[in-house]
Amino acid sequence: MTELKRTPLYPLYAELPGVRCIDFGGWELPVQFSGIQKEHDAVRRQAGLFDVSHMGEFLVTGKFAENFLQQVTTNDVAKLADGQAQYTLMCYPDGGVVDDLLVYRISADHYMVVVNASNIDKDFDWMQQHLSGDVSLENVSDSYALLALQGPEAAAILKAAGAESDVLELPSFHFKKDTVLAGVPSIISRTGYTGEDGFEIYVASEQAGAVWNALLAAGEPFGLIPAGLGARDTLRFEARLPLYGQELSSTISPLEAGVGFFVKLGKEDFIGKEALVKQKEEGLTRKLVGIEMIDRGIPRSHYPVYAGAVQIGEVTTGTQSPTLKRNLGLALLQSDYSALGTEVEVEIRGKRLKAEVIKSPFYRRLPKE
């Protein structure tokens, strides 16, 4: 039996009462600390602190670093300035997705790429296969820990923890490389995966505990609590943020998954461009849509979806929304059945139950007054 990997923060949270850890892609990670509903609500109303140190970090350096990233990703890296981050995807030649990721521009010849934990080895191999010219690729995943501070009180908590004022004023998808938090050198980014305001904090693995403890102490008056993978999943689901392996995969293209905004078909050639251009020109045969159950039942991943006797797709993610208290799902359906108001049936434990295609994201945060 393969031993599960653990993050540098594991010793701190493993002793907390109520924490429950699971095997997540070969990592022993907390699915919850005090309950998914409580943690979900805290992020929506105050703040939650996530250990996401299992994510992978690569450094891309050299004279042709930008050219290389332009070739292997779908978004336009050339639009980035120093201190900016970008959501993007890597595709196979047929348009399927290798992974979705974040690209951070540190300088013209120095980028950090953040990838999904379960795809670290695959992504690194894929990128290595396409290296050319003066560019180097280094996997530094073991050197970094990553904390995600998410929720409407995130900026106030960072301030209480001693963050520099220019960090607090970062616009979305901007970051500061050389900053200090709780006495620890950090990279702080205004990004997240919850649909709320928030920050992601990269620190050296051996110093992660000091930052974790400092944030929890500073955040206690603001209602900050540790949050696990369960709440992270329900939060991103309500905001219609895709999860690799469910909404995105080697057989689901970015256009089908509804993240075509991050595919710049007008830029120079990139891996998968030809297939994606063809897919757009010919029209999508499948689309990711939101659904709400009409009959009583909760849609779950991989439950088949029908129109009459014909299976027209399947649920990619579904649950009872902790915020909205409605039974909702994301489903990849044949395009003919993707219009709002279309009635479909979800097979739940052998029974076909009625559902309706509805608008998504299911949740959008309100701007601060």
Question: Could you explain how this protein is built, in words?
Answer:
With 369 residues, the protein is α+β, with helices and mostly antiparallel strands. Among the domains are: 10-52 and 142-238, Probable tRNA modification gtpase trme, domain 1 (Gyrase A, domain 2), CATH 3.30.1360.120; 285-358, Elongation Factor Tu (Ef-tu), domain 3 (Beta Barrel). The chain has nine helices and 19 strands. The longest helix has 12 residues, at 208-219. It is globular.
Task: Give a quick precis of the structure.
The chain is an alpha+beta fold.
Give the termini separation: 53 Å
Shape: globular
* Low-confidence segments: none
CATH topology of the domain at 10-52 and 142-238: Gyrase A, domain 2
CATH homologous superfamily heading of the domain at 10-52 and 142-238: Probable tRNA modification gtpase trme, domain 1
Level-1 CATH class name of the domain at 10-52 and 142-238: Alpha Beta
Strand proportion, as a percent range, falls in 25-35%
Helix content: 10-25%
SS elements, strand count: 19
Lateral arrangement of strands in the main beta sheet: 10-11-12-9-3-13
**Biggest sheet, open or closed, and with what strands and sense?**
6 strands, mixed
Give the SSE order as H and E letters.
HEEHEEHEEEHEEHHEEEHEHHEEEEEE
Name the average pLDDT: 97
How large is the count of helical segments?
Answer: 9
CATH architecture of the domain at 10-52 and 142-238: 2-Layer Sandwich
Q: Note the quaternary state here.
A: single chain
- Rg from alpha-carbon coordinates: 21 Å
